[in-house]
Amino acid sequence: MAITPRAAATLNERSSAHVVIIGGGFAGLATARGLADEDVRVTIVDQHNYHTFLPLLYQVATAGLEPADVAYPIRTIFGHADNVTFRHGRARAVDHGRRVVVLEDNTELAYDQLVLATGATANYFAIPGASQYAMPLYSLAHARHLRNRLLTELEAADVRQESGPGELNFVVVGGGPTGVETSGALAELIRIVVRRDGLDFGALTVRVILVDLTTRLLTSFPSSAASYARDQLADMGVEVQFGRSVVEVQPRAILFADGERLETAAVIWAAGVTVAGTLAPEAADRVGPNGRVVVAPDLRVTGRSDLWAVGDAAAVLSRGQLCAQLAPVAIQSGQHCARQILLLQRGGATTAFHYRDKGTMATIGRNAAVASLPLGVVIKGRLGWMAWLTLHLFYLIGFRNRLRVVINWTWRYFDWPSGPRLIVADAETVD
Protein backbone atom coordinates (compact mmCIF):
# COMPACT_ATOMS: atom_id res chain seq x y z
CA MET A 1 0.00 0.00 0.00
CA ALA A 2 1.36 3.44 -0.92
CA ILE A 3 1.98 5.92 1.89
CA THR A 4 0.73 9.44 1.22
CA PRO A 5 2.98 12.42 2.03
CA ARG A 6 0.73 13.34 4.95
CA ALA A 7 0.84 9.79 6.33
CA ALA A 8 4.62 9.74 5.95
CA ALA A 9 4.86 13.04 7.85
CA THR A 10 2.69 11.61 10.62
CA LEU A 11 4.90 8.53 10.90
CA ASN A 12 7.95 10.77 11.07
CA GLU A 13 6.38 12.86 13.82
CA ARG A 14 5.66 9.76 15.85
CA SER A 15 9.18 8.45 15.46
CA SER A 16 10.90 11.76 16.32
CA ALA A 17 11.48 12.80 19.91
CA HIS A 18 9.18 15.57 21.10
CA VAL A 19 10.89 18.44 22.97
CA VAL A 20 8.57 20.78 24.86
CA ILE A 21 10.03 24.14 25.88
CA ILE A 22 8.11 26.11 28.51
CA GLY A 23 8.92 29.78 28.03
CA GLY A 24 9.56 32.03 25.05
CA GLY A 25 12.22 34.27 26.58
CA PHE A 26 15.93 34.40 25.76
CA ALA A 27 16.65 30.90 27.07
CA GLY A 28 13.62 29.24 25.51
CA LEU A 29 14.21 30.80 22.10
CA ALA A 30 17.92 29.92 22.16
CA THR A 31 17.03 26.29 22.90
CA ALA A 32 14.45 26.18 20.12
CA ARG A 33 16.83 27.79 17.64
CA GLY A 34 19.43 25.14 18.41
CA LEU A 35 16.87 22.44 17.66
CA ALA A 36 15.34 24.06 14.57
CA ASP A 37 15.57 21.95 11.39
CA GLU A 38 16.91 18.98 13.39
CA ASP A 39 15.39 15.49 13.69
CA VAL A 40 13.23 16.38 16.69
CA ARG A 41 9.79 17.91 17.12
CA VAL A 42 9.74 21.10 19.17
CA THR A 43 6.80 22.84 20.84
CA ILE A 44 7.26 26.20 22.55
CA VAL A 45 4.64 26.97 25.20
CA ASP A 46 4.14 30.54 26.39
CA GLN A 47 1.27 32.64 27.75
CA HIS A 48 2.25 35.39 25.27
CA ASN A 49 2.52 34.82 21.52
CA TYR A 50 5.56 37.08 21.33
CA HIS A 51 9.12 37.27 22.59
CA THR A 52 9.93 40.38 24.65
CA PHE A 53 13.34 42.02 24.56
CA LEU A 54 13.51 42.63 28.30
CA PRO A 55 16.62 44.89 28.39
CA LEU A 56 14.67 47.67 26.62
CA LEU A 57 11.46 47.49 28.65
CA TYR A 58 12.49 50.52 30.67
CA GLN A 59 12.51 52.57 27.44
CA VAL A 60 8.92 51.53 26.75
CA ALA A 61 8.00 52.47 30.32
CA THR A 62 9.59 55.92 29.97
CA ALA A 63 8.04 56.58 26.52
CA GLY A 64 11.26 56.17 24.56
CA LEU A 65 10.06 53.22 22.47
CA GLU A 66 6.74 51.71 21.47
CA PRO A 67 5.74 48.28 22.87
CA ALA A 68 5.90 46.78 19.37
CA ASP A 69 9.54 47.87 19.06
CA VAL A 70 10.66 45.37 21.71
CA ALA A 71 8.35 42.43 20.94
CA TYR A 72 8.31 39.93 18.08
CA PRO A 73 5.84 37.09 17.30
CA ILE A 74 7.25 33.69 18.19
CA ARG A 75 5.53 32.02 15.25
CA THR A 76 7.23 34.47 12.88
CA ILE A 77 10.64 33.79 14.41
CA PHE A 78 10.34 30.08 13.59
CA GLY A 79 8.32 30.34 10.41
CA HIS A 80 11.16 28.74 8.45
CA ALA A 81 11.49 25.71 10.74
CA ASP A 82 8.97 22.97 9.95
CA ASN A 83 9.80 21.07 13.12
CA VAL A 84 9.07 23.97 15.52
CA THR A 85 5.51 24.83 16.58
CA PHE A 86 4.05 27.23 19.11
CA ARG A 87 1.34 26.66 21.71
CA HIS A 88 -0.31 29.75 23.18
CA GLY A 89 -1.12 28.99 26.79
CA ARG A 90 0.15 28.82 30.35
CA ALA A 91 1.67 25.61 31.69
CA ARG A 92 0.06 24.72 35.02
CA ALA A 93 1.80 21.50 36.06
CA VAL A 94 4.14 18.72 34.96
CA ASP A 95 3.24 15.04 35.35
CA HIS A 96 6.63 13.33 35.36
CA GLY A 97 5.16 9.83 35.54
CA ARG A 98 3.14 10.22 32.34
CA ARG A 99 5.58 12.70 30.77
CA VAL A 100 2.96 15.34 30.06
CA VAL A 101 2.69 19.10 30.57
CA VAL A 102 -0.74 20.17 31.82
CA LEU A 103 -1.95 23.57 30.58
CA GLU A 104 -4.38 25.86 32.37
CA ASP A 105 -7.22 24.76 30.10
CA ASN A 106 -6.47 21.17 31.25
CA THR A 107 -5.17 20.08 27.84
CA GLU A 108 -1.99 18.02 27.91
CA LEU A 109 1.21 17.95 25.88
CA ALA A 110 3.21 14.72 25.87
CA TYR A 111 6.99 15.10 25.78
CA ASP A 112 10.16 13.07 25.52
CA GLN A 113 12.37 15.92 26.74
CA LEU A 114 11.12 18.93 28.70
CA VAL A 115 12.96 22.25 29.01
CA LEU A 116 12.06 24.68 31.80
CA ALA A 117 12.78 28.20 30.55
CA THR A 118 10.18 30.00 32.63
CA GLY A 119 12.38 32.93 33.65
CA ALA A 120 12.05 34.88 36.87
CA THR A 121 9.73 37.40 38.47
CA ALA A 122 10.16 40.39 40.79
CA ASN A 123 11.41 39.57 44.26
CA TYR A 124 9.53 41.64 46.83
CA PHE A 125 11.31 40.07 49.83
CA ALA A 126 7.98 39.72 51.66
CA ILE A 127 7.85 43.50 52.18
CA PRO A 128 4.25 44.46 53.01
CA GLY A 129 2.46 46.17 50.15
CA ALA A 130 5.32 45.84 47.68
CA SER A 131 3.64 43.30 45.41
CA GLN A 132 0.37 45.28 45.46
CA TYR A 133 1.58 48.86 45.06
CA ALA A 134 5.14 48.84 43.66
CA MET A 135 5.53 48.60 39.88
CA PRO A 136 7.96 46.02 38.46
CA LEU A 137 9.41 45.86 34.94
CA TYR A 138 9.44 42.24 33.81
CA SER A 139 6.82 42.13 31.06
CA LEU A 140 5.42 44.26 28.26
CA ALA A 141 2.24 44.74 30.27
CA HIS A 142 4.33 46.03 33.19
CA ALA A 143 6.04 48.57 30.91
CA ARG A 144 2.80 49.84 29.40
CA HIS A 145 1.17 50.05 32.83
CA LEU A 146 4.11 52.00 34.24
CA ARG A 147 4.21 54.37 31.26
CA ASN A 148 0.51 55.18 31.74
CA ARG A 149 1.12 55.80 35.43
CA LEU A 150 4.12 58.07 34.89
CA LEU A 151 2.46 60.17 32.18
CA THR A 152 -0.81 60.40 34.13
CA GLU A 153 1.01 61.65 37.22
CA LEU A 154 2.93 64.26 35.21
CA GLU A 155 -0.27 65.48 33.55
CA ALA A 156 -1.98 65.68 36.93
CA ALA A 157 0.95 67.69 38.30
CA ASP A 158 0.55 70.18 35.47
CA VAL A 159 -3.11 70.62 36.42
CA ARG A 160 -2.48 71.22 40.12
CA GLN A 161 0.72 73.27 39.77
CA GLU A 162 -1.08 76.44 40.82
CA SER A 163 -1.95 74.96 44.22
CA GLY A 164 1.43 75.95 45.65
CA PRO A 165 4.66 74.28 46.75
CA GLY A 166 4.82 70.53 47.07
CA GLU A 167 6.63 67.43 45.89
CA LEU A 168 6.02 64.82 43.24
CA ASN A 169 8.26 61.88 44.15
CA PHE A 170 9.12 58.97 41.88
CA VAL A 171 11.07 56.34 43.82
CA VAL A 172 13.11 53.62 42.13
CA VAL A 173 14.05 50.76 44.47
CA GLY A 174 17.23 48.91 43.49
CA GLY A 175 20.62 50.13 42.31
CA GLY A 176 21.35 47.43 39.75
CA PRO A 177 21.34 47.96 35.97
CA THR A 178 17.52 48.10 35.74
CA GLY A 179 17.26 50.66 38.53
CA VAL A 180 20.05 52.82 37.13
CA GLU A 181 18.69 52.73 33.58
CA THR A 182 15.10 53.40 34.64
CA SER A 183 15.93 56.32 36.94
CA GLY A 184 18.11 57.95 34.29
CA ALA A 185 15.44 57.53 31.60
CA LEU A 186 12.76 58.87 33.94
CA ALA A 187 14.82 62.00 34.68
CA GLU A 188 15.19 62.55 30.93
CA LEU A 189 11.44 62.04 30.40
CA ILE A 190 10.63 64.74 32.96
CA ARG A 191 12.94 67.22 31.23
CA ILE A 192 11.42 66.39 27.84
CA VAL A 193 7.78 66.92 28.87
CA VAL A 194 8.68 70.32 30.27
CA ARG A 195 10.77 71.45 27.30
CA ARG A 196 8.88 69.86 24.42
CA ASP A 197 5.33 69.27 25.65
CA GLY A 198 4.87 72.45 27.64
CA LEU A 199 4.01 70.86 30.99
CA ASP A 200 4.32 73.34 33.83
CA PHE A 201 4.85 72.09 37.37
CA GLY A 202 4.89 75.56 38.91
CA ALA A 203 6.15 75.44 42.48
CA LEU A 204 5.98 71.64 42.58
CA THR A 205 9.33 69.91 42.99
CA VAL A 206 9.53 66.78 40.85
CA ARG A 207 12.05 64.32 42.29
CA VAL A 208 13.48 61.05 40.99
CA ILE A 209 14.94 59.13 43.94
CA LEU A 210 16.98 55.95 43.56
CA VAL A 211 17.30 54.00 46.81
CA ASP A 212 19.35 50.92 47.58
CA LEU A 213 20.25 48.98 50.71
CA THR A 214 23.92 48.65 49.69
CA THR A 215 26.64 51.29 49.74
CA ARG A 216 27.05 51.71 45.97
CA LEU A 217 25.36 51.23 42.64
CA LEU A 218 25.96 48.36 40.18
CA THR A 219 27.53 45.97 42.68
CA SER A 220 28.42 43.50 39.93
CA PHE A 221 30.50 46.18 38.16
CA PRO A 222 33.93 47.53 39.12
CA SER A 223 33.86 50.40 41.61
CA SER A 224 34.99 52.91 38.96
CA ALA A 225 31.90 52.12 36.88
CA ALA A 226 29.66 52.46 39.94
CA SER A 227 31.13 55.86 40.81
CA TYR A 228 30.69 57.05 37.23
CA ALA A 229 27.03 55.95 37.20
CA ARG A 230 26.38 57.74 40.52
CA ASP A 231 27.98 60.97 39.28
CA GLN A 232 26.09 60.88 35.97
CA LEU A 233 22.76 60.31 37.71
CA ALA A 234 23.48 63.17 40.09
CA ASP A 235 24.20 65.46 37.12
CA MET A 236 20.81 64.46 35.68
CA GLY A 237 19.06 65.40 38.91
CA VAL A 238 18.52 61.89 40.28
CA GLU A 239 18.89 61.67 44.05
CA VAL A 240 20.82 58.51 44.92
CA GLN A 241 20.35 57.32 48.50
CA PHE A 242 22.29 54.37 49.90
CA GLY A 243 21.61 52.30 53.01
CA ARG A 244 17.84 52.72 52.65
CA SER A 245 15.83 49.70 53.74
CA VAL A 246 12.20 49.63 52.56
CA VAL A 247 9.81 48.19 55.18
CA GLU A 248 6.45 48.89 53.53
CA VAL A 249 4.89 50.20 50.32
CA GLN A 250 1.52 51.91 50.56
CA PRO A 251 -0.82 53.06 47.75
CA ARG A 252 0.93 56.44 47.49
CA ALA A 253 3.79 56.24 49.96
CA ILE A 254 6.90 54.27 50.88
CA LEU A 255 8.18 53.61 54.41
CA PHE A 256 11.82 53.15 55.34
CA ALA A 257 13.45 51.39 58.28
CA ASP A 258 14.63 54.71 59.74
CA GLY A 259 10.98 55.75 60.20
CA GLU A 260 10.66 58.10 57.22
CA ARG A 261 7.40 57.99 55.29
CA LEU A 262 7.70 59.50 51.84
CA GLU A 263 4.66 60.29 49.73
CA THR A 264 5.09 58.99 46.19
CA ALA A 265 3.59 59.30 42.74
CA ALA A 266 4.98 55.87 41.86
CA VAL A 267 7.33 53.27 43.32
CA ILE A 268 9.26 51.40 40.65
CA TRP A 269 10.58 48.02 41.85
CA ALA A 270 13.98 46.95 40.53
CA ALA A 271 15.31 45.29 43.67
CA GLY A 272 15.93 41.79 42.34
CA VAL A 273 14.29 38.68 40.94
CA THR A 274 13.15 35.28 42.14
CA VAL A 275 12.03 32.05 40.50
CA ALA A 276 9.70 31.26 43.40
CA GLY A 277 6.10 31.35 42.25
CA THR A 278 6.84 30.17 38.72
CA LEU A 279 6.35 26.64 37.41
CA ALA A 280 10.04 25.72 37.40
CA PRO A 281 10.59 25.07 41.13
CA GLU A 282 7.30 23.17 41.32
CA ALA A 283 8.41 20.87 38.51
CA ALA A 284 11.83 20.13 40.02
CA ASP A 285 12.92 18.10 43.03
CA ARG A 286 15.55 20.54 44.33
CA VAL A 287 15.81 24.32 44.27
CA GLY A 288 18.63 26.65 45.18
CA PRO A 289 18.94 30.39 45.88
CA ASN A 290 15.86 32.46 44.96
CA GLY A 291 14.01 29.31 43.96
CA ARG A 292 16.36 28.54 41.06
CA VAL A 293 16.25 24.90 39.95
CA VAL A 294 19.34 22.86 40.82
CA VAL A 295 20.85 21.41 37.65
CA ALA A 296 23.73 19.09 36.81
CA PRO A 297 26.73 20.43 34.87
CA ASP A 298 25.03 19.50 31.57
CA LEU A 299 21.90 21.51 32.67
CA ARG A 300 19.70 18.49 33.29
CA VAL A 301 17.59 18.88 36.42
CA THR A 302 19.16 16.88 39.22
CA GLY A 303 17.68 13.39 39.38
CA ARG A 304 15.91 13.61 36.01
CA SER A 305 17.05 12.25 32.65
CA ASP A 306 14.36 14.00 30.58
CA LEU A 307 14.10 17.38 32.32
CA TRP A 308 16.28 20.46 31.74
CA ALA A 309 16.34 23.96 33.19
CA VAL A 310 17.96 26.97 31.53
CA GLY A 311 18.25 30.72 31.92
CA ASP A 312 16.98 32.59 34.96
CA ALA A 313 14.95 29.56 36.09
CA ALA A 314 18.09 27.49 36.71
CA ALA A 315 20.96 27.68 39.18
CA VAL A 316 23.42 27.50 36.29
CA LEU A 317 26.98 26.67 37.30
CA SER A 318 30.06 27.35 35.22
CA ARG A 319 33.42 26.12 36.49
CA GLY A 320 31.94 25.83 39.97
CA GLN A 321 30.57 29.39 40.04
CA LEU A 322 26.88 30.32 40.07
CA CYS A 323 26.06 32.38 36.99
CA ALA A 324 24.12 35.62 37.29
CA GLN A 325 20.59 35.86 35.94
CA LEU A 326 21.52 37.74 32.78
CA ALA A 327 20.41 37.55 29.15
CA PRO A 328 23.83 36.27 27.91
CA VAL A 329 23.69 33.41 30.43
CA ALA A 330 20.15 32.59 29.32
CA ILE A 331 21.12 32.54 25.65
CA GLN A 332 24.26 30.46 26.13
CA SER A 333 22.57 27.98 28.47
CA GLY A 334 19.71 27.54 25.97
CA GLN A 335 22.18 26.90 23.15
CA HIS A 336 24.04 24.37 25.31
CA CYS A 337 20.82 22.60 26.27
CA ALA A 338 19.88 22.17 22.61
CA ARG A 339 23.28 20.65 21.83
CA GLN A 340 22.96 18.19 24.71
CA ILE A 341 19.51 17.03 23.62
CA LEU A 342 20.83 16.40 20.10
CA LEU A 343 23.85 14.55 21.50
CA LEU A 344 21.56 12.23 23.46
CA GLN A 345 19.38 11.68 20.39
CA ARG A 346 22.46 10.56 18.48
CA GLY A 347 23.64 8.26 21.23
CA GLY A 348 26.40 10.53 22.51
CA ALA A 349 27.36 11.71 25.99
CA THR A 350 26.54 15.14 27.34
CA THR A 351 29.12 17.77 28.28
CA ALA A 352 29.32 20.41 31.03
CA PHE A 353 28.20 23.98 30.45
CA HIS A 354 30.86 26.70 30.41
CA TYR A 355 29.78 30.32 30.34
CA ARG A 356 31.74 32.71 28.15
CA ASP A 357 31.65 36.05 29.93
CA LYS A 358 31.72 38.83 27.35
CA GLY A 359 31.00 41.58 29.86
CA THR A 360 28.00 43.49 31.20
CA MET A 361 26.61 46.92 30.35
CA ALA A 362 24.29 49.57 31.73
CA THR A 363 23.22 52.87 30.23
CA ILE A 364 22.60 55.93 32.36
CA GLY A 365 21.36 58.36 29.74
CA ARG A 366 22.16 59.87 26.39
CA ASN A 367 25.93 59.65 25.79
CA ALA A 368 26.44 57.98 29.16
CA ALA A 369 26.88 54.25 29.76
CA VAL A 370 29.28 51.83 31.42
CA ALA A 371 30.56 48.53 30.08
CA SER A 372 32.48 46.08 32.25
CA LEU A 373 34.51 43.80 29.98
CA PRO A 374 36.69 40.77 30.75
CA LEU A 375 40.17 41.33 32.23
CA GLY A 376 38.92 44.31 34.20
CA VAL A 377 38.44 46.65 31.24
CA VAL A 378 35.83 49.36 31.85
CA ILE A 379 34.40 51.58 29.09
CA LYS A 380 32.53 54.71 30.13
CA GLY A 381 30.87 57.71 28.56
CA ARG A 382 30.02 58.06 24.88
CA LEU A 383 32.14 55.07 23.83
CA GLY A 384 30.35 52.87 26.37
CA TRP A 385 27.01 54.23 25.19
CA MET A 386 27.81 53.41 21.55
CA ALA A 387 28.89 49.90 22.59
CA TRP A 388 25.61 49.50 24.51
CA LEU A 389 23.56 50.62 21.48
CA THR A 390 25.41 48.27 19.13
CA LEU A 391 25.07 45.24 21.39
CA HIS A 392 21.34 45.73 21.98
CA LEU A 393 20.64 46.19 18.30
CA PHE A 394 22.56 42.98 17.58
CA TYR A 395 20.44 40.92 19.98
CA LEU A 396 17.12 42.57 19.09
CA ILE A 397 15.01 40.18 17.00
CA GLY A 398 13.60 41.20 13.61
CA PHE A 399 14.87 43.62 10.95
CA ARG A 400 11.75 45.77 11.31
CA ASN A 401 12.27 46.14 15.05
CA ARG A 402 15.96 47.00 14.60
CA LEU A 403 15.11 49.61 11.98
CA ARG A 404 12.39 51.22 14.11
CA VAL A 405 14.64 51.34 17.16
CA VAL A 406 17.53 52.85 15.19
CA ILE A 407 15.23 55.51 13.75
CA ASN A 408 13.75 56.31 17.17
CA TRP A 409 17.15 56.49 18.88
CA THR A 410 18.64 58.64 16.12
CA TRP A 411 15.68 61.01 16.02
CA ARG A 412 15.62 61.35 19.78
CA TYR A 413 19.38 61.92 19.92
CA PHE A 414 19.23 64.92 17.64
CA ASP A 415 15.79 66.36 18.35
CA TRP A 416 13.93 64.77 21.29
CA PRO A 417 10.59 64.72 19.43
CA SER A 418 7.22 64.20 21.06
CA GLY A 419 7.53 60.43 20.60
CA PRO A 420 5.19 57.79 22.03
CA ARG A 421 4.13 59.75 25.11
CA LEU A 422 0.58 58.45 24.92
CA ILE A 423 -1.68 57.49 27.82
CA VAL A 424 -3.53 54.51 26.40
CA ALA A 425 -6.17 52.76 28.49
CA ASP A 426 -5.31 49.08 28.77
CA ALA A 427 -7.52 46.49 30.44
CA GLU A 428 -4.94 43.72 30.13
CA THR A 429 -4.03 42.04 33.38
CA VAL A 430 -0.51 42.90 34.52
CA ASP A 431 1.32 39.69 35.33
Write up this protein.
The chain has 431 residues and is α/β, with parallel strands linked by helices. The protein has two domains: 5-47 and 89-120 and 275-345, FAD/NAD(P)-binding domain (3-Layer(bba) Sandwich), CATH 3.50.50; 130-271 and 360-415, FAD/NAD(P)-binding domain (3-Layer(bba) Sandwich), CATH 3.50.50. Helix content is 33%, strand content 25%. The chain contains twelve helices and 26 strands. A five-stranded parallel beta sheet has the order 5-2-1-9-20. The chain has a four-stranded parallel beta sheet with strand order 13-12-11-17. Strand 6 and strand 7 (100-103) form a beta hairpin. Helix 2 runs parallel beside helix 10. It is globular. 42% of the residues are buried.
User: How many DSSP H or I helices?
Assistant: 12
Q: Which bin fits the share of residues in helices?
A: 25-40%
The domain tally reads 2
Helix and strand content put the structural class at alpha/beta
Rg of Cα set = 23 Å
Number of strands: 26
| Residues in β-strands, percent | 15-25%
What do the pLDDT scores average to? 91
Q: Under CATH, the topology of the largest domain is which?
A: FAD/NAD(P)-binding domain
Poorly predicted runs are: 1-14
Spell out the blueprint of helices and strands.
Layout: H1 5-15, E1 17-22, H2 26-35, E2 40-46, E3 50-52, H3 57-61, E4 71-73, H4 74-77, E5 84-88, E6 91-95, E7 100-103, E8 108-110, E9 113-116, E10 121-122, H5 130-133, H6 140-159, E11 166-173, H7 177-195, E12 204-212, H8 223-235, E13 238-242, E14 246-250, E15 253-256, E16 261-263, E17 266-269, E18 273-274, H9 279-283, E19 293-294, E20 307-309, E21 314-315, E22 317-318, E23 321-322, H10 327-345, E24 360-365, E25 368-372, E26 378-380, H11 381-395, H12 399-415
Parallel strand pairs: 1-2, 1-9, 2-5, 9-20, 11-12, 11-17, 12-13, 19-21
Antiparallel strand pairs: 3-4, 6-7, 7-8, 10-18, 14-15, 15-16, 22-23, 24-25, 25-26
Helix pairs in contact: 2-10
